[in-house]
Design goal:
By secondary structure, the chain is of the alpha/beta class. The chain is built from 13 helices and nine strands.
């Protein structure tokens, strides 16, 4: 995951800075499947790769008018906008990953993606399956995809209901019921880490997963970050808010292309590009602007 960036001078500097902040070699850790299987390491490693990709784009002359990140990616967006220094973000995300791992062990749960349905249909399944357990729509990804999160029993019942309605349900490989009340034990340690960091005024608006709106006030961004792990990710609203503000091109900086595909569904007509390597960054930067 990190190896693709080490040949780029700017990206390599980011990975070195991330390694210093984390106190662990990010590149070597990304080669270790056991390390990547832990939320505690995987989260800061992903953050480092996302920021490496972003800074590679900036170094090639690209500029941006707003930022958004899905779940963990929101911390990369905060770094990209200049709200957080990378070192502070790495330390916060390391605490976040550890706290979420511990919360998942203390209050077991899981997540399932419901494909082909939007928020309303997913919420109806949750209402029917919840009972006395925890179950809610945790990721409002697009009109055709929602992710539900909650206790294992409730998730299993929801999957059965989905099958009866010919809705495809895909269980996610996660360490807990993220973005649900079952993550409440993670809020206190995460909040303490966030309070130790300086939050600056963003260079451009950041779309908040919690509200689905563009935010420019640093203290509001700080408070929203504290509730992030127990609040649904309103991704479709984030993308729509950026489009309303004038965005016509969405660039996914870092590993994967899931958000690129989602952007095309949420904001039809907008261009979406995944930049997962220095070569991809160079190709995008070479296009006429």
């Amino acid at each position: 995951m990190a190896d693709v960036w080490i040949t780029d001078e700017v990206a390599a500097q980011v990975l070195a800075e991330a390694t210093d902040a984390l106190g662990r070699d990010v590149v070597a850790g990304c080669r270790d499947e056991a390390a990547l299987a832990t939320t505690e390491f995987a989260q800061p490693a992903l953050l480092a790769c996302d920021v490496a990709a972003f800074r590679t784009l900036v170094a090639r002359g690209l500029s941006f008018g707003g930022a958004a990140g899905h779940s963990l990616g929101e911390f990369a967006a905060l770094v990209a906008a200049g709200v957080l220094e990378l070192g502070d973000a790495m330390r916060i995300v390391a605490v976040r990953g550890r706290a979420m791992q511990e919360a998942g062990e203390a209050r077991p749960g899981t997540m399932t993606a419901l494909l082909g349905v939007g928020v309303d249909d997913a919420a109806a399944i949750c209402d029917e399956a919840r009972g006395d357990d925890v179950l809610l729509v945790a990721n409002e990804n697009s009109p055709q995809q929602s992710v539900i999160s909650g206790s294992v029993n409730a998730i299993e019942l929801a999957e059965s209901l989905a099958a009866e309605r010919t809705i495809r349900a895909v269980r996610l490989n996660v360490a807990g019921a993220f973005h649900s009340p079952l993550m409440e034990p993670a809020v206190e340690p995460l909040s303490a880490a966030i309070d130790e960091a300086a939050f600056g005024t963003p260079a451009f608006p950041v779309a908040s997963n919690v509200t689905g709106t563009l935010v420019t006030d640093p203290e509001e961004l700080r408070e929203l970050a504290k509730r992030h792990v127990v609040s649904p990710v309103r991704w479709a609203s984030c993308a729509a808010a950026l489009q309303t503000a004038g965005a016509d091109t969405f660039v996914e900086a870092g590993p994967g292309d899931v958000l690129t595909k989602l952007a095309k569904r949420v904001v039809p007509g907008a261009r979406a590009v995944a930049v997962g390597s220095p070569d991809a960054a160079a190709t995008l930067a070479a296009e006429p602007r």
